[in-house]
Design brief:
The protein is an alpha/beta fold and 316 residues long. The chain contains 14 helices and five strands. The chain folds into two domains: 30-109, Orthogonal Bundle (Arc Repressor Mutant, subunit A), CATH 1.10.10.10; 149-308, Glucose-6-phosphate isomerase like protein, domain 1 (Rossmann fold). Helix 8 packs across helix 13.
Length: 316
């Protein structure tokens, strides 16, 4: 059993503004700007959201506009556009144009943009399949591209040292929670996934400073996930969030925030690209936890494989 740790020692430091330093980092590469805009869009003011949607829909075209042209098309003012730039971590409009142009150039060089966009009523079967495949591939690529490795390492440290791990998720995110439970359980961790709100709250009430909770929600607004995370944190557990939106209520409730970079499109809300992105982060977390105790991991995986191997036919 892990040595008992104080709740204070396990909390990430805050910066001078009082914000949790574990929150998703600001974009440090131009190609990340559209991913960042999509993640922050729900937290923006209505006028800034209009600016954001234009940037996301066609970054290459927007990059060629003057600020006056942009303001006219977004039905807002140049001041709002400057405020939008600062909200997404850029110094001003010139920096936004450079970042959007770089994103457009990156996309032109990649095959995954060859067929993209929402599924339309008149799409043929080949187009639908390619759109689904490209959207899923893009979700994985962009999620990996924006992962904060220092932050992920802190989560791995917490999971490795935890007495017990509770994972909360509802709907499609509940499937991801169950997958994480199965993976960590095979490593010998004491881990439970809760997809029922009452059971999650009951479990959270019994946790303490030696424990870790992981709340999974694409939007970060699901109360079935947020509430047990808050209860567990109030009892001293370290709270981790996995969400697509770093300024969401779930992110605000957590000590450490891991983010995905998935876009929901027609027919896919809450069920496909978001889940693929979440599974990607879960797989990274599993691999890193397994790596920390390599010999024990190999032994545990071999034993569990042998146990379920008896349930397979001989193939004859």
């Amino acid at each position: 059993m892990a040595a008992r740790r104080s709740a204070t020692a396990r909390r990430p430091a805050t910066n001078s503004a009082g914000r949790n330093s574990s929150q998703a980092k600001e974009p440090d590469a131009p190609v990340d700007v559209v991913v960042r805009i999509r993640a922050l869009l729900p937290s923006l003011a209505p006028a800034e959201q209009r600016v954001a949607r234009l940037a996301v829909s066609d970054p290459g075209r927007v990059a060629r506009w003057t600020i006056s042209e942009y303001a006219e098309r977004a039905q807002t003012s140049g001041t709002t556009i400057i405020r939008f730039c600062r909200a997404i971590g850029l110094d001003g409009y010139p920096a936004l144009r450079i970042a959007l142009a770089a994103t457009a150039g990156h996309g032109a060089a990649g095959t995954w943009r060859s067929v993209s966009g929402d599924i339309e009523p008149d799409d043929d079967i080949m187009t639908v399949v390619r759109k689904v495949g490209n959207a899923d591939a893009r979700a994985v690529e962009e999620t990996i591209g924006q992962i904060d490795f220092d932050l992920l390492s802190k989560v791995v440290d917490a999971v490795v040292g935890a007495r017990r791990i509770d994972v909360y998720g509802a709907g499609a995110s509940g499937l991801v929670a169950l997958d994480l439970q199965q993976k960590l359980h095979r490593l010998g961790k004491i881990v439970y996934a809760w997809t029922d709100t009452h059971m999650a709250l009951t479990s959270a009430a019994m946790l303490g400073t030696e424990d870790v909770v992981i709340g999974i929600s694409y939007t970060g607004t699901t109360l079935d996930t947020i509430d047990p995370v808050k209860v567990a944190k109030a009892n001293g557990a370290l709270a981790v969030a996995l969400t697509n939106h770093p300024r969401s209520a779930l992110a605000a409730a957590a000590d450490l925030v891991l983010t995905t970079a998935a876009r929901e499109t027609t027919f896919r809300t809450g069920a496909m690209t978001s889940r693929i992105a979440q599974f990607t982060v879960v797989d990274c977390l599993f691999a890193l936890v397994a790596q920390r105790n390599f010999e024990e991991t190999v032994d545990a995986l071999e034993r569990t494989y042998a146990a379920i191997g008896r349930r397979r036919t001989s193939g004859r």
